[in-house]
Specification:
- This is Alanine-anticapsin ligase BacD.
- GO terms for molecular function: L-amino-acid alpha-ligase activity.
- Keywords: ATP-binding, Ligase, Nucleotide-binding.
- It is built from twelve helices and 16 strands.
- The strands form three sheets. Strands 13-12-9-10-11-14-16-15 form an eight-stranded antiparallel sheet, sandwiched between helices. A four-stranded parallel sheet has the order 3-2-1-4, with helices on both faces. Strands 5-8-6-7 form a four-stranded antiparallel sheet, sandwiched between helices.
- It is about 30% helix and about 20% strand.
- A hairpin with a 2-residue loop joins strand 9 and strand 10.
- The chain folds into three domains: about 100 residues, 3-Layer(aba) Sandwich (Rossmann fold); about 80 residues, ATP-grasp fold, A domain (Dna Ligase, domain 1); about 240 residues, ATP-grasp fold, B domain (D-amino Acid Aminotransferase, Chain A, domain 1), CATH 3.30.470.
- Helix 1 runs parallel beside helix 2 and helix 3 crosses helix 4.
Length: about 450
Amino acid sequence: MSKVLYVHAKGGPPAGHALRRVAARSAVHLLALSELPAGVAAEAARLCDSVVAHATAEEGDLVGLITARAREVGADAVVTFSEYAVVAVAEASRRLGLRGAGSTAALARDKRLMRAAWERQGLPQPRFRSVTTAAELERAAAELSFPLLLKAAWSAGSTAHQIIGTPGDLRAAWQRSRAVMAESALLGFAELHVPGAGEDFIVEEIVSGCAADWFGGSGWGDYVSVEGVVADGVFHPVCVSGRMPTVAPFTERAGITPAALGSAAQAGIVELARRAVDALGLENCGTHTEIKLGAQGRMWLIETAARFGGAMTVPQIEQVFGIDLAGMFTDQLLGRSPAWPARALTPDDADGAAGSLVVLAVNKDGSPWARRHLWDSATVVRSAPVSPGSTLSVVAESSLPDGSLVPVYDPAAGANTMAAVCLLSAGRPQTVVDDFTAMVDALPRILPTDVTEAVRA
């Protein structure tokens, strides 16, 4: 039987979901670079032939650790679904002579390299500059037009994003973003392979989106993501996922599969994603390409990742399209040539729709909740105002324990301050958006109030 070394780290699809599907295709040896979520450890012990938990490596030698463990277990493939381990796993696979993302994987991780590759191909994206110091940020700002967005080059989940309105805001934004990256590293949300990655940033102009020109219904955000895979160097789009509007500065609130787009609009989006992925020269990996949608058909690339979308994107695709991305990708790495979709799937191909909502202590208009609340999954499932026929659940693996204090939303920390993830199934994409919009309004009314701690500004 074939053997797979599964490298677990923070981020990506739910670990339990992915692990079960990989284990259905191969014997699995688990290398856990971060703590397994509550409830997954026991399942991992049952599913895996071996588990090495909380493994650490000397700084800069993570590739050596992965390579050595793969050789110990005789792995035929090395897989990860975590943004933070993608580059290390790609390099380890190269050393081992196994299929992987390839030598250019860092181009789909480091936003500076990614943007430079797209610039060489003339692809549409916001004007940007790479920065590593406050002085470089000030020089870059002099060449760009305000307002600006400061991003950590190796971040994920909108961590350390800062909107800069005037030159006087530059120094404070720089200090805050660097502090957030340091805090995220302590929580395990940081690049695992590149020392000092938290010091690398880009600053870019903010382009104006226009969701109304792309979607017939209300409540949609002005950007989408194209989910796909690169198999032996060939990009295969799977589907397009939609979003609700972000929470300032650009923290994702919800993802919806599929996006309710017309066929011509989806075709144009998918073609831009294809050009973006092709420009990075990847070999074998999942892909997640985010695209900003503007007025009159304009589009700008935001970023591409050499892995599948995080949160509940992968389970949502399986639910509505019947495609097991984690299992098929395992087959791909093992040389079994799975049958990837011949084209990007559309709402007409879907069996209903599904979406995931990140619970943040923020109202629809971006204002913070007036009071502190306690997370209670049973109350949310029982009392949330969803449409008849919709089914709501809470993703325990991605949520705080019941009774936990819902964190105060920190714009710089992004998704690091979420309380939970809710999953909803409905008959069509617009119903998912409508239900989530109603839930955002209802959550501060239905969740229990904490009476022991006042709200912090």
